[in-house]
Design a protein that fits this description.
Elements (H helix, E strand, L loop, with lengths): L8 E5 L4 H12 L3 E6 L8 H5 L4 E4 L5 H11 L3 E4 L6 H6 L1 H21 L5 E5 L13 E2 L10 H19 L13 E6 L3 E2 L9 H11 L3 E3 L5 E2 L2 E2 H16 L8 E3 L8 E2 H10 L7 E3 L12 E2 L2 H7 L8
Parallel strand pairs: 1-2, 1-4, 2-3, 4-5, 5-7, 6-15, 7-12, 8-11, 9-14
Antiparallel strand pairs: 10-13
């Protein structure tokens, strides 16, 4: 599977992050020539530092158009997986301008670079499951639903989707593929990934482990919040499958896609924590944070019908 990536030059933005490190390792195992571009190593400890990928490791800010463009010109990747982002909801309330600059302008910089460098054949731009206008109606969102965003992070990612769609329509229109251009662009919407090596802030399972190590009770903000939890390799398999279709020149896949668990496998925060508690000492527990918190959506489900029926991507593991 994914033999198409062998010996290909592949650029990954945000390669030092949790998802970035995993997809770097996966592509290296497939024989790809990986070039990574990240502003820093975001956590300590760090999965990236622990596994030490063999990729070309470049430090650079996606907001710096000149530097990013020079890297693309130098290495001439055939495909770019765009994961660089400010990924935290609560941080977006504090570092709001940075969030918009990194997520929106950073994405625009990448797409403008692609416009100037005709050799890039494909782009898979990763956004989030939080791009939808969420009115808490208990509906699973499908790709055709309206975009929105209450908090700055969600809004910035919805903006990313609009920017991606605009560039695709204006400069990389699939009707002109093979005539005026040779680039296909898709976006991938997934979220709440779990798995080994996640040391980021505001992540439920890492916070649970940290509380155990510190001998403290876990404090959770929204025990009844519903999220599409999924192992990190599930969403990455979707990204790789999508990239494969684009590299094959299948222009019908140059659109947006949801990646998440099956409908009956979506759980609340409290269900996940209780499952974790079952595997540890009975003294391990949790309690709800009584402090006032910034707004976060309570109900979030993804409809993955299109990815299953058209892309033929199916989740392999249950939560």
């Amino acid at each position: 599977m994914f033999k198409i990536y062998k010996n290909r030059k592949i650029l990954i933005t945000g390669h030092t992050g949790f998802k970035g490190s995993w997809i770097t390792l996966w592509l290296e195992s497939l024989g790809a020539k990986v070039i990574g571009y990240s502003v820093d190593i975001p956590t300590k400890p760090s999965l990236f530092e622990l596994v030490k990928p063999k990729c070309v490791d470049i430090r650079g800010d996606i907001r710096n158009f000149k530097k990013f463009n020079s890297v693309v010109q130098k290495y001439k990747p055939e495909i770019i997986f765009h994961l660089a982002a400010q990924p935290l909801v609560r941080k977006s309330y504090v570092d709001t301008i940075e969030t918009y600059q990194t997520n929106v302008i950073g994405t625009a910089n990448l797409l403008e670079t692609i416009k100037k460098n005709k050799f890039v054949k494909a782009v898979v731009a990763v956004t989030t499951d939080k791009v939808y206008l969420n009115n808490e109606t208990c509906k699973a969102f499908c790709e055709s639903d309206a975009l929105g965003g209450y908090d700055p992070y969600s809004a910035s990612k919805a903006c990313c989707e609009i920017v991606i769609s605009s560039y695709r329509n204006s400069f990389f229109n699939i009707k002109e593929y093979g005539k005026k251009h040779n680039t296909l662009i898709a976006s991938a919407r997934a979220g709440n990934v779990i798995g080994g090596g996640d040391f980021a802030e505001d992540r439920l399972i890492p916070d649970f482990i940290k509380s155990i190590l510190a001998g403290k009770t876990l404090i959770i903000r929204s025990p009844k919040a519903i999220r599409p939890w999924q192992h990190v390799l599930e969403s990455l398999s979707g990204y790789l499958m999508l990239g494969e279709k684009l590299l094959e020149g299948k222009k019908q896949f140059a659109q947006c896609w949801n990646f998440g668990p099956e409908h009956n496998d979506i759980k609340t925060v409290e269900q996940i924590v209780k499952k974790m508690c079952e595997n540890f000492d009975d003294k391990i527990g949790y309690k709800k944070d009584t402090k006032k918190q910034p707004h976060e959506a309570c109900y979030l489900k993804l409809d993955i019908t299109k990815s299953k029926s058209v892309l033929k991507w199916v989740p392999k593991w249950k939560v």
